[in-house]
Structure formats: C-alpha cells, structure tokens
User: Fold these one by one.
Assistant:
Number 1:
Amino acid sequence: MIKITNLKAGIGETLILNGVNLEVKAGEVHAIMGPNGSGKSTLASIIAGKEDYEVTEGEIGFEGEDLLELPPEERANKGVFLSFQYPVEIPGISVSNFIKTSINERRKAKGLEPMPTPKLLKMMREKMELLSIKDGYLSRNMNEGFSGGEKKRNEIFQMAMLEPKLSILDETDSGLDIDALRIVANGVNKLKTNDNATIVITHYQRLLDYIVPDFVHVLYNGRIVKSGGAILAHELEEKGYDYIIKEADKKWA
Amino acid sequence: MGLIDDIKSFSEKEKLGAKKNELLQSFLAKGFPTIKEEEWKYTSLKNIVAESFSVEENGTEISKGDIEKYILGFKYKIIFLEGVLISKPNIKGVDISDFSNFETKNDDAIFGLNSALAKKGFTIKVENNIILEAPIEILFFSNTKNNTFVQHRNKIIIGDNANIKFVERIQNLSSTKCFTNHLTQIHIGKNTNIEYNKIQDNSANSILIDNINIYQLQDSNAIVNTLIFGGAFTRNTLSFEQNGSNCDSNMNGISILDDNQFADNHTFVDHKQPHCRSNEMYKGIYLGKSKGVFNGKIMVRPDAQKIDAFQSNNNLLLSESATIDSKPQLEIYADDVKCSHGCTIGQLDDEAIFYMRSRGIGAEEARAVLTYAFASEAVNNISIPEVKKLAQKLIAKKLNVDLDFNL
C-alpha cells in the first residue's frame, strides 16, 4: 500500500529524516517506536503532506502513485489519514459540520453527490456508539475546549467516518486514561479490515497491548534502526531504547 | 466646488429659521471633521466632501420590483422612498409618524449639520408593556438622479416593560452617489428590551455616516447588531448612556470588506449608574485594499460601582494591502469594576488549514470555512432567524464560497 524509500527530509538546514525505508501492505499494522526527537511525528506529517518540511531525497509511493507530488487534500482523498498528536481547535465549526464538509469534499473529488443528511447522521450515530461518544458532542465546536482524551477520541471518530485506506495514529495514546485507551483501541481494531492498513506511532508499549502490531520498527536519528515482530515492543519496554541506541550509534558513527 | 459650497448655496436660498441657521453657520465655520481631530484620526472625509452633491433629494421613480429584493418581509414595515414615508404598520400601542424635530447635543460637526438640515426621518413612540413578536423593519430607499447628500433624523421612545426589535436598511438604487447622514436617538424605558439590527449592505457608491444614541433607564437591555458588507464608506457612531442601575448594553458587529471599501465603528458606553453591564464584540474581515477602523470607548463614572464591561475587537487581514486601526479606550473612575478589552489582528491559522486539508478539504475551502467560522461567533448572537440567515448568506457571498452550514 505505502512504500517509503530512502526518505530524507528536514526543516531548513536541519535534517530530521535520514533515509527512512518502510513498506506497509494492506491488512497490516505497523508500530513505529523510538525515543523523543527521533523523527516519528515528522515522518507522519510528511506522509500527510505538511508543507513545513522539505524532502531532499527519496520517495513515498502510495498504491503506485507518487504521494509527494500531491497536496494534502488529495492525499486524504486517496485514503491517507493522520490522527494528529495535537489536534487543532477550530472555533466556530461544529464537529458535525466539519465532518460533513470533509466527507462531501471527498465525495466531490470522486465525482459523487453529497451524502444525504439522514444517511450521514445515521453513520455518525453508529460510529459514536463504537467509540462510546456521548450525545451533544456533534454540536460542539471542533476540538474547542475538548480535554486531551476527547481530542484523541475525536480523531478516531473522524477516522471511522472517513474510512481511510492508511491510518497513521500519531501518539494517539498520549492524554488517554486507561478506559479511554481501551475504547479507542477497540474502535481502531473494529475498523480494521484486510484492505486497510495502520501505522501506530507511539513512545510506549502500552497501546500495543490493545492494538497488536504485525511489525515493530524503532526509529532513531531519522532512521529505522531495528525492525521485528510484536515481541520487539515488549523487549523495548523491558530494556529501554539504550541498547538499540548504542548499536545504532556504533553502526552510523 | 465641493460639498461645503453646495451646503452654503443651499442654505442661502432655503429659509431654515434662526436656530437652525445658527447651527448651520457654526457647522460652516468649522467645516467637515478632518483627520486632525482625534475622533476622525483614521477616517478621512477629504475625498468625499471634495465632490459636489445636491443637498435636496431629487429622486426618480422607484418601482415595487426594485425594492422587493431588499425587504426581508416581516409583518411590520416602515418604508421611505426618497425620504417620504410611504408605508407604515398599524400596531396597537405603537405610534409611528414622520419626522419631528428634536434637539441633540451637537458636539460633533456632523451631528450639528444633521440638526440644522434634517427634515426627514421617523418617529416611533411605544407605550408601556408593549411586546412585539415580529420585528419592525425600517427601510430607506433612494434613487437619485445625481450625487445627493441627505439627512435622516429619527427618534424612538419606548416606555417601560416593553420588548421590541428593529431591522434597518438604507438602500441606494441609483448609479449616482448617495451620502446619508443618519441619526437615530433611542430612549428606552425601565425593564424594556430592544434589539436593533443594522444591515449595511448598500451599493458600492454609497456613503453613510450613522449615529445611534441610546439612553437607557434601569433594568433595560439594549442590543445593537451592525452588519457591514456593502457601501463605499461607512462610519458608525454608537453610544449608550446608562441612566439607571442594572442595565445591559450589548453590541455585536461584523465587517467584511473588500476592494476599496472603508468602515469605521466608533462605540461609546457611558456607565453612569452602578450594577450595569456592557458587552461588545466586533469582528472584521478585510480583503483587497479595504480599510477598517475600530474605536471602542468605555467610561465608568465615579459612582458606577459593580460594573462589568467587556470589549473585544478581532480582525482578520486576508490581503497584504488591507489595513485596520483598532483603538480601545477605557476610562475608569470607580474602583469596584470589572473591565476588560482585547484586540487581535491576524491571519488564518496555518495549522488549522493543514488540519482541514488533511481531512480532504481543499486549501481554498479550508480558508473560506475558517473565515466563515471567525465571523459566525458574532452572527450567532443575532436573535432574529431571518436576519441571521441573511447575514450568513451575505458572508458566504462576500467570501465567494458555496457552503452549507445547516445540519
């Protein structure tokens, strides 16, 4: 589904990604772990199309297309979804209007008519139930005054509504208490099919108890320095990142 | 020749009477305000008054079809054509008539000029305990043959325990310039609520100087919503004088300007009595080479304790050539008051634009939605659904977007 080859990127003179290689196939869940400042969120932002970063080398292929050539909205319309680490507050726009606009813009891109309102509302109710979201939420302004947990849940709600092919969950577990974490993870698992894929970015192993990855990668200094199965996450939880960092520093010294 | 000369020659052939002539002479001695005066520092009339205007209305006929699209269609309508009252509703306890002379404090040259020359306008007297469900729609239409300078002088006196709403619109139908000097004095009785909505969506050749002076008695609540979309030049002066305790004075304003449009909102709340509140929210969106001015003055007099006054003026500059001058002024002479003011001038949030684009909303739409959302906060305070809907429609039109916000 997505193939990242030798991706190098940064802001100005500072190189943040130093040659990332990653391939995610349909039906797979990949976890990207790593210490703070290793480039995890940068990678997520670049896949989604954030223009602050400059890609100096490498490619991102998404279903055979060059993703780097497309503006963010076209990437979204092709099925890329980023659950933000820090979701943005948008005063003056209700959750329902925001989602309605986003679904219909997407349909417009595909040459479809806007989704009829009753159908849209029914779908919203279903997905709200899936994520145990309370009534009254739809008329609140987008992320405005939301708690950290509510913001993250709102991200997964949008993911449920937009039904992306590739979801990137950037630190979705931060700000969630254990009950909310379970609900959100459960929602993500229920949305999983053989045709979509998920990249879970996390600092801690905790989330991976609920969303079990097929592959775990460790990102350090802008490179994937180690990959393995779900067991790698447990190993990291036990031993910390130190031993991998030492190995990597030796290798790329 | 300029407007001053036009006024001079008009006054020479017109018999104004001693008192009005005195007012006029005092105006002529001073002339129109210039940017050297503090209250007009950012608002220049120079180019406007350099042109020639007819001081008498000289309208051509207006057909019903011409005005229909400007009427919101409420049950009660007051319609003026070329300053002539042609239609007024019959409402029990509400007396509506033509112009009646009244005096004002003429501390501004433009007020003085209005006092001297005005012969047109409405007078509304509302008895105690009158509650109207539907608003009174007030419409002024002009269709002048050549550039015209007109004066309207209106007065509303409302008794106690009443509840009334107004929607006002001044519309120039001609292709010549119409310069309106519009003054409205509103006296509000005890425990009375009023809402005054001004829809300023006049044609691109219109110039408006609008003064509203509101005098409140105890337990009264006054709301004024000012919606500026059209007109070449608009200067609104809005003042509230609280003459009793437990009064509320509320103002909401939206200006969305483009091209070379200019709009100035000058507000003044005079807190003279204790236990009163004022709340002010003005939003401005500036495109093209448009220019905005905001001047909000709050005065708390020595005996006016326990005052709660809030003012905000938030502006979006969406073009490099657009400008806004914003000036809050707080004068507080009492010690137990809560007053705050905030002013922001900014652009759209790039993070928010990226967030929306990442959800499939195109960059242009994202900007439009965010701009719309910025304005909507002030629109949401309008209580009349028809006015709110019109405001939403005009905002969308002005921003050139087709967005459906009803769900």
Number 2:
Amino acid sequence: MITALLLFWPALAALLVLLIKGEGAKKVAFIATLVEFAIALFAIVNFVPDATTQFALNMPWVERAGIGFSIGMDGISLLMVLLTTFLVPLIVLSSFKHDYKNPHVFYALVLFMQTGLIGVFVAMDAFLFYFFWEVALIPIYFIAAIWGGARRIPVTFKFFIYTIFGSLFMLAAFVYLYFQTAGTELAAHSSNVNAFYQLTLDSATQSWIFWFLFLAFAIKMPVFPFHTWQPDTYTESPTQATMLLAGIMLKMGIYGVLRWLLPVVPMGVSQWADTVLVLSIIGIIYGSIIAIRQSDVKRLIAYSSIAHVGLIAAGIFTLNEQGLQGGVIQMLSHGINVVGLFFIIDIIFRRTNTREISSLGGITQTTPALSIMFLILLMGSVALPLTNGFIGEFLLLSGVFQYNHYFGAVAGLTIILGAVYMLRMFQGVMFGTKSESTEGFADLTFHEKAVLIPLVIMVFWIGLFPNTFLSISEPAVGQLLSIINR
Amino acid sequence: MISIILLSGFGIISLFVGFLKSKRILLPLSLLFLAIVFGINLLDWNDTQSYFENMITIDNFAVAFTGIMVLSTLLILPFTQHYVTRNDENIGELYALILFSLVGAIMMVSYNNMLMLFIGIEILSIAMYVLAGSDKGSLRSAEAALKYFLMGSFFTGILLFGIVMIYGATGTFNIAEIAGSAEALGNGGVNNVMFLLGVLMIIIGISFKVSAAPFHFWTPDVYEGTPTVWTAYMSTVVKTAGVAAFYKLMDAAFAASYGSWMPTLVAIIVLTLLIGNVGAVVQQSMKRMLAYSSISHAGYLLMTLLAFNNLSTSAILFYSFAYSTASIAAFGVLQLVSRQRQNENYEAFNGLGKTNPLLAFSVAVSMLSLAGIPLTAGFFGKFFVFSALIENPDMMWLIVVAVILAAVGVYYYFRVIIAMYLHPVNEEHAPIRSTSFMNVMLIIITVLTILLGIAPALLSDVL
C-alpha cells in the first residue's frame, strides 16, 4: 500500500496543482513533495533489511496476457525512491525565486515526472517498468522544451528521439523475453520480474538481448558513445530540469541495468562485460578531458557527469560486490552532488548573467556561506575522504581493480582528472579578482540555504556513516549476485 | 444482421430527410441512427448465426469490428457540423452515403463468401468515390475523386479476377470450402498455378484498399483533395474494414498455403512501413503527413497477418480502434484549423497550445498515441501487434525493422506538438472557433485514448 501511495500521490498532487493558477502552485507543489518524502521515510523505517521485495502490491493489469500491476521495493529500489523523494522537494524549493511562465503547468509536470520516476524504481513487471520509463520522459521533455534556453527546441527534440529510439529496443527485448517465460494457469506467459529471472536462454540469444537492453540503458545514463544528446540538453534545459535529468533520471538507466539487465541475461553480460568496461573507461577519460577544456560551467558539470557515470557503469559491470555496492551508493552521492552543483551554478548565473569562467571571479570575498557550501559539494564530487564521493568511488575503483588491474589503474585517473577540472573551475569562478559581473555579489538567501544545507548534510552523512545506506542495499545486492552466478 | 438491414433503411430515410427545408435535423438524426445500430449490433454478441445460405456469418469477430466501426463513425460525424449549419444543398446524400458505406464495411467483416466480400468492398468504395468529390467547388476534390475512382476500379478488377481464379481452382466462393478444396489440391494449393495467381491478385487488390505500398500511390493525393471529414472516415473505418476482411480471408481460406504468399506479404509490409514513415518525414503539410502516417499504420496492422493466433484478432481490433480515435481527433482539429487559417501546413498549428488549449491537448494526445508512447492507446496497439507476431520466431527481424521505423514516426508526430506548444503564436491569427459539441467529442476521444492506454484490457480481452 505504501508503494502505491508513493506512486500515485505525486500524480494526484499534480492534478491539484494544475487547478491552482498563479504563485500558489509552487507552495502546494512543495508541500506535496514534502509529504511524499515523509511517506518515503515512513517506508524506510518499516523496511526490514533483507533481500525480499517489500511493501509489494500485485494486481492484474492485462490479466489474460499475464501482465500484472506489480510494484514493490527491495533495498536498491528503496534507496532510489529515497533519493528521488529527497531531491524533488529541494528541486522545487530551488525554483522559488524563478518566475516561470504558467507556474501551475511547470510544477504539475515536475510532479508527474516524480510519479514516472518512482514508478520506474518500484515496478516489478517488465511492461510496467517500460510504461513508467516512458511516462517519466514526457514531462521532462516538455519542461526542458518550454522553459529552456534559446536552442531548446532542436536540442530537446534530439534528446527525445534519441531516448525513444533506445527504449523501443528495450521494448522489443522485453516482448521477446516475455514470450520465453513460463506462465501460470491464468495466462500462457508472465512479465513479472521473477519470471524473467528464471529464464534460461542460450548464450547467442542472451548476447543480442543484452545489446537491445543495454542500448536503452546506455543512452539514458549516458555511456560513451551514446552521450551526444547529454551536454546540449543539460545546458539548454532550465536548471530544475537539469537537476531532474542529472540527479535522478540518469539513475533510471543504472537502475535498469541492475534490475533488468544483469540478472536477466547474465551470460550475455559476461560475454560483453569487457566491451562495456572499455566504453565506460573511455567515457571517464573523454568526459574528464573535455570538462577540463570547458569555459561554460554548466557544460563543465555536464561533461563531468559523463565521467562519473562512466565509473559507475564500469563498477557495476564488474559483477563483484564492491563494484555493485559502490554503484548503488555512488548513485546517491552523484545525485546529491550534481543537484547541488547545478543549483550553485544557477545562483551564480542569476546574479551575474554569465556562466563563462573567464568573466567570473572573486566571489569568495563577499560570500562566505556560498563558498563553503560550494567547496563541500565540490569536494564530494572529487571524492575527498570524509565526503560521500569517496565512499562510492573507492568501492567502485576497488571493484574495477579486482576485475582487471589495468582497467582499475586507468579508471583511477578519474580522481586526478576530476580534481583538475573541479578545482580549476572553483579557482576561476570563486577566487581571483572581482570582475565587472561579480561586483556586489550577494551571499546566499534563506531559500538558497534551505536547499543547500540538506544536501551538505547528506554529503557528510554518506561520507561518515555510509553503512546507514549500504546496509539497506547489501542483502538485495547479495541476492542479485546469487542470481547472476547461478 | 439486423444492423445491416437497419442501416440500409436509415440511409434511405436520410435521403428523404434531405428534401426537408431545415437540414439541421440530419446530423442528430444520423447520430441517433448510429447509436441504435450500435446497440442492436451488441445483441448478436455470443450468438453466432449464418444467413442467406451461409453467405454472411455474424460471429463475435463481426460484432466486435462492427462495433468499433460504428463507434468511429459516431465520433467522426460531429465534425460535419459546418455542412448542416451552412444549410448546403443536397447534404442529405452525404449522410446517406456514409450510412450506406457502413453497410459495405459491415459486410466486409461478416462475409463468409467471397462474393459478399466483393459486394461489401464495392458498396464501401463507391460511396467513398462520391464522398471524395463532394466538395463540388474545389478542383482538388474533383481530382481526388477521379483519381480514386479510376485507380479503385482498376484494382477492384484485379481483386475480382483473383476471386474468379480461386473459383476456377477450387470450384467454390465459400471461404471455408476453399480451405477444404485447397487441401484436396495438395499442399494447400501450393502446386496449383491458378490458385497461387488468384491469391496473389487478391492480396494486390486488398492491399490497394488498405493503402499498402507499393499500391499506396493514390493515398496522399486523394487524402489531400478529399474534404477532411471524409478523409478521417477513409483513413479509419475503411482501413479497419479492409484489414479485418484481409485477415479473415487469409486466416479462413489461405492459411494452408501460408508459405507461398508469406514472402509477398512481408515485402509489402516492409515497403509500406518504409514508404509510410520516410514519406511522412519530408512532408510540410499536416494533411499529407497524416496520409503517409496512415500508410505506415497499414503496415503495422498487416503485420498481424503473419501470425494466426488468438492474439492477432485482438491486436487488429485494438490497433484499429486506437488508430481510429487518434486519427479522428487529428483530422477533426485539422479541419477546423485549415478552414479558419486557410493553411494545412504545420505552421497553421503554431501557438495552438496558447490560443486553444483543449484542441491542442487532444491533438497532442492523439499524436502521442499515433507515435505509440505509453499512457495512450497507441502504445498497447503496437504492443499487441508485436506480441502477436513474436510467437513466429522467423519474424524477429521484421519487428526490429518496425521498431526502428516507429522511432522515425516519433519525429514527425512531434513536429505537430512542437508547433502547437513551442512555437509562438502568429499575431494575425485569431483563436480557432469550435462548437461546444465538437469540444465534447474531442474530450470523449481524448479520454478514450488515455483510458485504453491505462486499462487496455477493456478492449483487448473482448475477442
């Protein structure tokens, strides 16, 4: 029941927000997302840390075809739901000083998007998963295309076509897998996740199914060379859309790999794991090097995101416990850090009207609070010990190192390169002499602090007590491994 | 059976009502007739009866398809309101023709004998030839009618020739007996040249009627010239009837010779998908885009003919209805926009999201449905079609081709959405006027599309 509440509450709230014209919409949306977060906290308190799927709800959907409305949460899902419900209120709060046209539509779309995202993370039926996968895409497309920057129309169009293209392959693979499953007395086949896990396909079939599914997930993450939509879309979207895309939507791809790729076609995965690792590591180096060369800070973070996601992808395809656990915890950390960084860039942009490193500088002189928050989030991003990034990247790198020493060594460059582009950005933006545009730069307002302080707390919480979160996902990851190694 | 007789009678009544001074009554009267037929038709559910020496069989297949065709017509007719309010001459004929053509369509889904199939197609087609040319002042409409008529008669001839060949080879017109005789010919008739030639000609003849490539060439021109309401009818009811008739024929009469005609049909499907989708990409006119999109949807529908299982009929039923509701909304709004802005191109839709949120929303939902995006009926339409086919493992590659081309489809459907919501409204353009009756119909269509996208079992479990 809790899962259904988590799933439908944002959609209901969205309908309510649609009816509220004017400025009231953002307040109602904010309260609705806080309620959603409270429901998620309630779920986490009642969660028993074992490998079972909890708070499950199974109802027939297309009964004759064996397609069920099956939702539920295991440890991995729960962490993703927690991330989503934690970030969305902050994203809504971060927009309070923006004057978007038609705010009721804007906030309704954000809430619809949340339903889609939660749906992806709790769906325990392949077609339900696909359904929410696309449902999440439509609101974000409109948010980015209506409220985005100057080149928003072609850029978001490319993003939309690209992701639809990938997900249609996923659908084809799901339909094929569905017809291989054994059914119940009611229906000849079943699309439940457990029916998919029980499949035993020959390795040639697994091999092509792997690519059909991987294509969809790789485009969403994005893994090199399927990333070309990402920098433009992140840059052109309004900040809140960028936060949703980078903070949460990207995790749909990684979650998809964990839930629907690794355990379903383990032989296909082991056949192609090397290829994926090489692609991911190319992505790490490529994203980092381009990030170093960027002059636009928003683009810089966009490329750094490619590098970070590359490491997560590499870690989970090693199929060992460190890699998988690192991937899960790094999904949380990356979501928190990247949302914080995009918000800080938005703060700077709104006060100076520029995102060029060269025309910024000297901001630290007048802004102690902003500087500290920025630095903490940045350190989280470059994986300094005691921060959240360290835990994730350490586990991921040790996983990759176990898999192959050389891969581990090259992937380790991410920490060095990350420090290079992040510190270069911080130096250019915050230190040095004041420029024309940063003259009279005001420190954080109450609203801005209200967004950043929870994020900073989480940076340290995950950095100091990672076990709070690792222990939730550990049994689920263990079970995942036992299915893969069957 | 009563529905066929009733509809014929109602058609004649409409003709006489057309002589009255006030023609306003025609539209509500026709809608009432259709509602009655819709209800009467449902009485035959689960009560299979054959009529006229087994010429026609009303089974659940026939009832279900009759139901969705009558319902689609019901949804289309409100968009003829401008005919009635302008009090045009002789509009009684138009309503009579629609009712008569529906008789043909019902015969096409309930025939048991190839002669009835032929008569059904002719009744339907002749009414459509006239409707295509019903805008008497317009050259384009006249051109469309002439083109449609000449081409249509030619292909009807081919179809008839095919039927005769089959008769020559098997000695019967009854589709069940044809299957039996084909068995007797050995190998399901594969070794008999006359039989094979007959099957081929029938495939060509019906392919023309459902506008499958390479027999699609008339579609864009005819659709463009025909008054938009009748284009909507052409691309929905006519297509539904054609595909259902095609499926019934192949399943009942020629299933045993599957191997011999399958390659031809696969070639037709691939060409149809390719030409439909690629052709739609390059169009500037929304109406021509919808014409090409209707070609591509014929391709998806025909994919069900490659697998005869219980999923196939459900898939055709669901897909045709999903496609019909979406097309009706699109053509309905297009008619309003193109008449008031004198422009059928995408630009005419610029800023519609601001000036007419309701019209824009219903078009957006129908575009999403045509593109096959979840939460709309179109998604489950594609899903059921692919599911029906996937049990045939040789056809995996065809599904891949169809999936890639479906992604191409997203491109041109989204151009409409982008025009409506993202392009600024043209200053000179006043908001589009629409009547509250049409608005209500658009709301019903949109709700139907979304409802079937959330609870597909409402329709997919019917057959």
